[in-house]
Amino acid sequence: MSQTKAQLIDPVDLSIVTADLADDAVTADKLASNAVVSASIVDGSIVNADINASAAIAASKIADFVSLGNTNNRVLTATGTANSLNGEANLTFDGATLNINGTSTDTPLILDTSNSSGSHLRFRKDGANKHFFGSGGGFGLGDVDDLSLRTTDNIIFGVSTTEKMRLNSDGDLLVGRTSTIDTSEVLGIKGPSGDHCTFGITTDGTTNLGIIAFNDNDANFRGQIRYSHSGDVMQFHAAGSERINVSADGIKFNGDTAATNALDDYEEGTFTGGIQDFNGTYTANTGVYTKIGNVVTIQIMIQGNGGSGSGALKLTSLPFNSENSPVSYRAVGSIHAHQGVVTGGVQVTALMNNNDNKVNIRTFQNNANTTDLNRNGLNSGGWELVIGMVYHTAA
Fold it and tell me: With contact defined as beta carbons under 8 Å apart, do 357 and 287 qualify?
């Protein structure tokens, strides 16, 4: 039975009694465009299922459920509360730069993966890989337990904007330098400005050696430079054995340790010789000497003219005194009486006694004692002697 108009309209507030309307009786085309307003909708009566999936609801129509306000560039994280996000004040992204502020934590960034190669960072330029850092298994340098760094050119270490060290693309390590001097150079070190360049090797205690070792093709060490702190000895090895060692005693050879066998001095130079009791003019009297350890070798050509005098003919002013022990020590040299020397037709020799810096010019004959050649045997018109001598010194 059809309903009357009086039955559809409430006589008190003149509203339409919805319970008396048939389902779908009122359609959108039956309503004026402004017939339904928000005040006419009961709060909470529209649920999620009532909203079409394609409905375009402006963000301004949705209540703010992000905590910490609406500060620009904050990255949103879930808070653990349903339908709630948190804008992280210490994690921001402006479209180009991601900024992580760990505040008091010492690990503001942790990379983790279940991949068997481990995790790593990758740096690109315009989509092209340039540098890798992390577990080496992921980029071909070692495995998950190796910390690896791979680059397309140099690895450079610096302080502020000043370069201190680099590993170049050839694998050469350079400290204080940016290039090698030779293609064979694998380690280049330059000292600080205005100072020496020191390569320091420190051992754990005096019983251990400081060693620089050389080998080929990863074989046994064939050459070594060693320093023994316990004995203060520098050792040089070649062909697998010690060949030279240097200590406070001097230089020893082939593993020798005896102080008496040490070569403790090398010196060479010139000296000005003279003839004892000669008051003429020298035209040449400069000699040369070499001292190796306690062995002295001298050679001199001495020339002169004029003068007078007599007495034993002796070369004076040798650079070192001869050995003083034993008292019977003598050294014998050679003399060439080139011109202007009266010898009496006998042989001439050079003799040096102990603790002396003179060479006695002596003559000897068959089955007779040697005697000193006399100073007056030098021709005043000009003379020349060439003398050579090897002797020991205590100096």
Answer: no
